[in-house]
């Protein structure tokens, strides 16, 4: 997407209203947005710590949720949940989590509560889940209360904010390269900017920065489960929400009723095999560069096989369309079109692949505008949903606080240019984008005090359903295969389709049917099940 650089990491579907992107690193770090975060020497969870227990501390108070309409006439209910900042010290400082609910539309057949994490890290569930509510299968909306929340440090839940004013935050964004740095001068600017951001954050609230880890949020989730009166958890996590779900499943294995993990991060990629020193970034370990390149190539092939009325960027054949794209990238390196530089366009192309309909058609239109020498019009985002705070502050430092504090990345900024060239050799333009998405973690000042880095194979009360999409521009299908193997009891459902997350693309009635049946009665799809999308892009 056009605009400021995305935050580092994989992200989720449609961006929340008011979110600043660098291009959405998946449509964070996007939404790619997943993200970012200190890593390489982050503290390990030790036996006996809060994260090592199967239950929260006995003295942790289950929050009370006083639901009320989020806004007059809104179908959504809002509440606030008070939780300990440090779960190992439940009597100490507390923070408030913003929570949202849409009640089951068929209350006579209601099964329970389904918790949803829409990805990131950095995805505000109180905004993104209402925005995407219609993407949930009808059967789930009928039978479950759909509940989400802004994870700690994000949005309206004690959101990390390292600036004194909006103007200060905007000035910081405007001073940085968009997408990723190109050339020695921009690389220096980029590195200095994120080092400066780290210093600002270190001064703002250092205790908060150390307590926004995935394990912290998993413990919050278990308190929320108890707060709604559920004996076991129903959970749907997408993108970053998959590593959150896997963490919960191994901290609280007996509390899993049904769990769907869609567009997965491989656990060992997230933890760097539990080693603190990282030679490459989280995103490159995940294969984000390779899967983005494969998805971009598929986009160009399908576009080239279509007529220009269906795909504006088509050059009449897949080969000619790929060549046209390469020529456009080279031209933009030499002559940007207004604010549309080479790096901004690459970032926009990657994040534009997240949502197939209408994202792929819109992306083709923007590329064609640039081909003709015209700057594309700004995108039109969906209106904010009727919730309590539809436009919370979502600065990049929020995703970084989670990502960089939890997952090891190289700590020397000087190595990233070499990693970029290596990635570009195997993944082309997309490799440059995904490499620099992880660089902000190099100088992030905080380490998570409460990390979980395995084991990932604790037997759960019920099996987990893992969903992987073949052409995903952020989280690779290979990561879904790894997730299904590393969990103790999981079944892989393959979506032979496109885009980041099957849920937010709502592209396969086959996937929806299997997910609904699993959540309703626990039935898994047969081993090896493959679902096709309901329609092909540009068809």
Q: What's the helix count?
A: 19
Helix content: 25-40%
Unreliable segments of 5+ consecutive residues: 1-9, 12-58
CA-based gyration radius: 21 Å
Strand element count: 12
Query: Main beta sheet: strand number and arrangement?
Result: 10 strands, mixed
Give an overview in words:
With 539 residues, this protein is an alpha/beta fold. It has 19 helices and twelve strands. Strand 3 and strand 4 (77-84) form a beta hairpin. The longest helix has 21 residues, at 184-204. Mean pLDDT is 90; it is low at 1-9 and 12-58.
What's the gist of this structure?
This protein is of the alpha/beta class and 539 residues long. It is built from 19 helices and twelve strands.
How are the elements arranged and paired?
Elements (H helix, E strand, L loop, with lengths): L25 E2 L3 E2 L35 E2 L7 E8 L9 E9 L9 E6 L7 H7 L6 H6 E6 L16 H9 L9 H21 L1 H4 L4 H14 L5 E6 L1 H12 L4 E7 L4 H5 L10 H5 L1 H17 L13 H17 L7 H11 L6 H13 L24 H11 L9 H12 L1 H9 L26 E8 L5 H10 L3 E9 L3 H4 L3 H13 L8 E2 L8
Parallel strand pairs: 6-7, 6-8, 8-9, 9-10, 10-11, 11-12
Antiparallel strand pairs: 1-2, 3-4, 4-5, 5-7
Question: What characteristics describe this protein?
Answer:
19 helices; globular; about 550 residues; disordered N terminus
